[in-house]
Amino acid sequence: MSKLLEMKNITKRFPGVIANDNINFSLEKGNVHSLLGENGAGKSTLMSVLSGLYKQDEGEIYIKGEKNNFKSPNDAIKNGIGMVYQHFMLIPRLTVIENIILGIKQEKEPLINEKKAAREIQEIADKYGMDIDPYAKVWQLSVGEQQRVEIIKALYRGAEILILDEPTAVLTPQEIEELFNMVEQLLKEDKGIIFISHKIEEVRNISDKITVLREGKKIGTVDATAKKKKLAQMMVGREVVFTVDKDNVSFGKEVLKLENIEAQNNKGLKAIDKVSFEVHKGEIYGIAGVDGNGQSELIEVIAGLRKADNGSVKFLNEDITNQEPRSILRKGVAHIPEDRQVCGLVMDMDIKENMVMQDYHEAPHCNGSFLDWNYISKHTNDLINQYNIKAPSEKEEARNLSGGNQQKLILARELHREPELLLAMHPTRGLDVGAIEYVHEKLLEARKEGRAILFVSTELDEIMNISDRMAVIYEGKIMGEVKPEEVTKEEVGLMMAGTKKEELK
Amino acid sequence: MPADTKIDIKKIAIPIFSVLVSFILGGIIIKMMGLSPSTAFKALMQGGIGNINALGETFVKATPLVFTALSYAFAYKAGLINIGAEGQLYMGGFLATLVGTNFQGLPMYIHLPLAIIAAFIGGGLWGLVVAWLKVRFNANEIITTVMLNYIAMNWISYLVTGPMKAPPGNYPQSKDILSTALLPNILPGSRLHLGLLLAVLMLIFYYIFFKKTKTGYETRIVGRNRKAADYAGMKSKKLSLLIMFIAGGVAGLAGASEILGIQGRMIEGFSPGYGFDGIAVALLGLNSSFGIGLSAIFFGFLRSGGNMMQMLAQVPVSVISIITGLVIIFVIAGQAISNNRIAGLQKIIDLFKRSEPNNGKHS
Fold it and tell me: Which of A329, A343, A397 has its CB closest to that of B3?
C-alpha cells in the first residue's frame, strides 16, 4: 500500500469557530502534498491534529492503512510524523547534537554517547545532502541551518511523514533552493512531505498535489499543473461578506510621499526595498500583501519607530524621515497600531489612561507638569459616548473590554485628534462583523473629512472594497499600484504571490 | 483619580493575612523552642511601642526603610527591579559625609540641605550607572545593582580605613559631621530625628509623582508596556535614566538619614541591610505610598522590639527574621495566586477537557 497517510472527515471546533470542517487529506510515498490557504484557513489546525497537538472532534487518521488517532505529540512522533514548525523549537544555547537528542531515551542512561549521536546525525545529513556541524551551537547557525537541524531532528526520530509549516517564510532565495533540493532527496527515500504555504508559485513548483483550504473548509485538491490563476481564485475567492458604500471624493493635495524607502527588519535583513508611493487628502491608499512582507516595517518607518536606511518620507511637503515618533505624531499623524494589545494599549491601565496617551502632554489635559484628571475623565466620557464604547465607566481596565471596544478606544484616541494622515494597520483584525463594519464606517468618515489614510490589510476583499488605490507588497517590494475596480481578485492574489503587475497579462 | 487609588479589599487582604499567619507560625516556632510565645510577643510590644524611647526607636528604624522601599518602588513602576538600594544608600552616605564634615561656618539652613542634596546626588548617580548599562548594553539591572552594592560597600570600607579615617583614632570611621549638618532630634527622650519628616515628604512626593504628574504617568506606561509607550511617542530610554536617578537618589537619602541623624559620622557597614529590607517593605506595602509608610513602621517595630524580645524572653532575634521572611513569602505567593487564579482555573479546565477522550478509553 503506497498510501502513507489518510485523514478522513476531520472536524475540529474551537469555541465559536469551526477551524476544520470535514476535511479529507491523503499523502502517498515519495510525494509532496501541499496545503494552500490564507492565514486562518485552517492549515495549521489540521496539521496540529496530525501531529497530536490537538484532538479532532470528528474524523479518523489512518497511517499506512491502519487507524491511528494520536493521543499526544509523542504518540505521533512514534508513528513517524515529523513536524517542522515555522517558529523553530530549538534551544539556542545548546549544540546541534544536544538539540537533536533532547528527550530521546539514551542507551546508557543517564550517560550520553555524544560521539555516536554525532555520527548518526552526520550520516543523516550526508544521506540527504545537508551540510551541518553537529558540534556547533544553535545560536551560531543561520536560519536556514537551524531549519536543517529541525529537519534532521525529525528524521532522527524516524519521521516518514515530514510536515513543513511555512518553511520558506524565513528563508532567503538561496536557502529556499537548498531546501527544495533537500526535499528532492527525501522523496527519493520514499518519505512523504506535507508542505504548508500561502505562496502559490512555490507550491506549484514543489508539489505533486495541492489541497486548498479556505475558512476551515476544503475547497478542492488539484494537481500541481493547475493554473496559477485557478489556485489564486480557490484561495481568495470567498464570498464578499459585505460591500461598502463609498461616496466619490476627489483627492486633494499630496499628504504623504515615500521615495525609495529602504529599511531593515529586526534581524538586520532588508525588509523594505525601494518603496515609493504617495497618499492624497481624502484618499484611502491600501497596502495589500501576505503578512510579513514588510508591511510592519514600512509603517514603522513612516511613524519614526524604525530607521530608514535610504529614501525619504515627506509629510505635507516636509521631510520627516527618521524624526522622533513624538514629533511626527504632533505634526498631524495618527496611528492605529498593528496589534492593539501589544503596542496599542496598556492592558492593565484604565480607559481614560489609555485614551490620553497621545494628548496628555498638551493643554487642557495637563497644566504644566501636572495632569488634569478631572478634565481627562470628562473628555474620556465624551469620547466613550461619541464612539459608542461599551464600558461601565472610564475607570474600567482596557483588558476587560472586548476586542471591538478596545479597537474603538484606539479609534477614538487617534481620530479625535483630527489627523491629516492616519496609519491604519490591520484595524479590523480579529474583530467580529459588527465591529469590522464600525471600523470601516469610521475610516470612510475620516476619508470624507479629507484625511489621508494609509490602510494595511491582508484581507483581500476588505482592502479592495475600501481602498481608492492600492499597492501590493511582496518581500518588501511593491509589485504594482492598481485601482481596485480595474483588477480582479485573482490578479491581486498573483501579485501577492510575487508576480509583478507588468507580468500579469 | 487613577485606578490605583481605588481601595481594592482583595489586594489589602493579602498583606494583612500574611502578617497574621506569619505571627501565628512565629508563635508556633517559639513554642517549639520550649519558650513562651505570649511572653515573647509581650516583650516585642514593649520594645516596639512600650515607651517614648521604644516608640521613637521604631520610627528611627522605619525612616531609612521608607527611603529604600521608595527606591525599589520607583524603579518597579518603571518596570525595573532595583536590588541596589543598599549600594545607593552607601554612596549617598558618602557624599553626605563629604559635605557634612567640610564647609565649617555655614549656617545650618544651608549646610544641612546641602548635605541632604549631596546624598541624593550620590545615590542618584549610582542608580544612573545601572540605567545607563541597561539602556546602552541591555545589561540586566538585577545583576548590575547587586554588583554595584559590593563596590559601594567596599569603597566605604576603604575610605574609612584609609583616606577619610579620622585622625588620630584606630576606629574605621570618618571625622564627626559638623553640628550644622546634623539632623536635629524631634522627640526628646528618643533618638528620633528630622529624617522622619523627610521620609514623610518623600512619601507624599512619590504619591503626587505617580498620580498627578505627566512624567509619572509616562513612567507607569513605560513600566507596563514599553512598546505602547514608544508607539505613543514617549522616550522610554530617557525615562528609565531619570527614574533610576530618582530611585538611587531616594535610597541615598537613607544614607543621609543614618549618618546625619544617627551615627554622626561615617563608619564601616553603617547600614544593617536597610537597602535589602526596603524591598520587603515595598512588597508588603504593595508599592503604594500609604502601604510603604505602614509597612516601614511595621518593620521598624520588629527591628526595635526584637532586641527587647531577646533580652526579656530569651527568644533569639533571628525569630524576627523568620517572621519577616514568612511575611514576604506569603505576600508574594498571595499575589501570584490572585493574579493567576483565573488563568490557572482555565488551565485546569482545559486539562480535564483534553483528558476526557483518553479517560473514556481507559474505562
Answer: A397
**Which residues is A185 bridged to in the sheet?**
none
pLDDT tens readout for residues A360-394: 999 899 999 999 999 999 999 999 999 999 888 99
Q: Which three cell numbers stand for residue B359?
A: 479517560
Chain centroid offset of residue B157 CA: 22
d(CA B11, CA B19): 14
User: Domain-by-domain residue ranges, chain B?
Assistant: 64-299
Evaluate whether ipTM surpasses 0.95. Answer: no
Return the axis-axis angle of helices B289-313 and B52-77, rounded to nearest 10°.
Answer: 140
A88 CB-contact burial (10 Å; exposed 0-12 / middle 13-18 / buried 19+):
middle
**A329 to B224: CB separation less than 8 angstroms, yes or no:** no
Chain A partners of B234 at a C-beta cutoff of 8 Å? Answer: 326
| Alpha helix (H) residue ranges in A311-372 | 325-330, 351-355
The alpha carbon of residue B299 and the mean position of all alpha carbons in its chain are separated, in whole angstroms, by 10
Q: B92 and B265 in contact (C-beta within 8 Å)?
A: no
Q: Nine-digit cell at A353?
A: 489612561
A430-450: burial string, b at 16+ Cβ within 10 Å, e else: ebeeebbebbbebbbebbeeb
Q: What is the dihedral of CA A477, A479, A484, A489, to 10 degrees?
A: -110
Scanning B216-235 for CB atoms below 8 A from A yields 217, 220-221, 224-225, 227-228, 230-235
- State yes or no: pLDDT of B332 exceeds 90: no
Interface of A with B (CB under 8 A): 55, 71, 303, 305, 324-330, 335, 337, 342-350, 353, 357-358, 360-361, 366, 369-371, 373, 395, 397
Joined grid coordinates for residue A332: 498631524
> Measured between alpha carbons, how far is A431 from A403 in angstroms, rounded to an integer?
6
pLDDT digits (tens, 9 = 90+) for A161-197: 999 988 887 676 677 888 898 899 999 988 999 999 8
Could you tell me where the DSSP H helices lie in B33-179? Answer: 37-49, 52-77, 85-101, 108-137, 141-161
CB-based contact B233 A71, cutoff 8 Å: no
pLDDT at A215 > cutoff 90:
no
Which of B212, B213, B230 lies at the smallest CB-CB distance from A305? B230
What is the strand order of the sheet A477-482 is part of?
A: A333-336, A421-425, A452-457, A284-288, A469-474, A477-482
